[in-house]
Write a structure and sequence with these properties.
With about 230 residues, this protein is mainly alpha-helical. It has helices at about 5-25, 30-35, 45-95, 110-125, 135-140, 150-210, 215-230. It has a domain at about 40-100 and about 105-210.
Length: about 230
Amino acid sequence: MLEAIPNAAAIWMILLLLVALVVAIMALPHNLVTSPPPAAKTVDPGYATELAAAADRAAAHAGRCRTAWQHALAEVDAAWAAYAEADAESRRVTAATAYPLMRRRRARTENADRERYLHRTAVAACRRREISIAQLNEALAHRGWDPRAHPTVQEAALRRAVRDHRLAGYRAATERERQAWETAERAAAELRTLRAEACAAPLRTTATMPPAGAGRRAEQWAAAEPVRAAAA
């Protein structure tokens, strides 16, 4: 037992030294041993303002695109209504040609009168924008048009040309409406992205700013450290 007493005393001395070291470390001020915070990704406060302004411009652009799409949609409805009216008129006039025409000897000037009638009605329809310039040229050149046909037959052919022109206009309006819709969708997606960034930017800016008074407390601890060292 006498030989074990020095060993036990040495173990107790080591334990006491460890406890004293831990107590001394815990007694030190925390601000003296803290290392500088890691560099955070800073966000310029003015960046949030720029994002907000960009979001406002994107909102105005999206509104204009939405209005343009609504106008294009209204044009589609108007074009379809015009086509439906032209189709009904074409059916009505075409139904009148179902009855056979009485054959008789024509006068010498009748063919010329029918040709003039075709030209006059085609020009009038083009002026009313019922047929296109290309269709008018076809009628004046008698390509696909019979200048010697009866006026009823010529009127039916003209009504069919009007119907075809209105159908082409409806298809073109549908294509413009589709493009306007895609443009409005892209503008809306860009607006949502900018608004999300504009909402998140102030939060990132506030999170990266140092708390108020942190710099002053650090300076006070830095100034007090040499005094304590000199006193020691």
